[in-house]
Amino acid sequence: MSQSQTRALVLFSGGQDSTTCLAWALHNYDYVETVGFNYGQRHVAELECRTNILGRLRNEYCYSEEKLGQDHMLDFQTLYQISDTALTSGAEIKMTERGLPSTFVPGRNLLFFTLASAIAYRRGFSAVIGGMCETDFSGYPDCRRDVLNDLQAAVSGGMDYPIEFVTPLMYKTKAETWKLAFDLEGGDFIELIKNDTHTCYKGDRSALHLWGYGCGECPACLIRKEGYEQYIAASNSK
Q1: Is residue 211 part of a domain?
Q2: What is the mean pLDDT of the chain?
Q3: pTM for the whole thing?
Q4: Is the dihedral of CA 84, 199, 180, 121 positive or negative?
Q5: In what order do the strands lie in the sheet containing 68-75?
Q6: Does 2 fall in a domain?
Q7: Residue 33, SS3?
Q8: Domain containing residue 151: CATH number
Q9: DSSP state for residue 139 in the 8-state scheme
Q10: Which domain holds residue 76?
């Protein structure tokens, strides 16, 4: 698929995956904007990372406003009001009787893509890019490609505007995501991801591990840690 002469909107949380997707978009689209959501998330620390990452991409990686444009931040507290999850409260992180982690926020990604599509429509963008993955993930059903395909069709039809939901990490392991970041921007970008992104569900930035900040115990930290260790092992074996 050729993606030259296109404009894309990236769902940018300030986490590892969305930061990698932003770098990927900057390499594959002519013009990129970002959108973030403040929905009352427990790990609100990720929002504090966004501005710093965008600043570093512009200043240190020389992405001008002609390439990396406007950042949209949506205050979406309604999602917090209707949710009762470990990601929107201080509840325990555990598996629920539905077989999903208690961090699953019903409707979150569906709403994010829908709202982002409204911005994309207004801005004349062809694609909305998200870091969803169904390989190394917590089992959230709204991260699956088949679900996003259905939503893409509904949103495109509902706006009478063809828009593509692009998920560069969908079939990658976390180790492959680390490697993609290196392939895109090199070793310094790996250090940026370690030091400046945030993924930990508990919002813990008290300790810097080899793979980044986090509690080291929640599902997000464990997936990130294991992926980094596999990435380093594969790199050292070459």
Answers
A1: yes
A2: 89
A3: 0.90
A4: positive
A5: 68-75, 31-38, 7-11, 127-129, 164-166
A6: no
A7: strand
A8: 3.40.50.620
A9: -
A10: 7-236
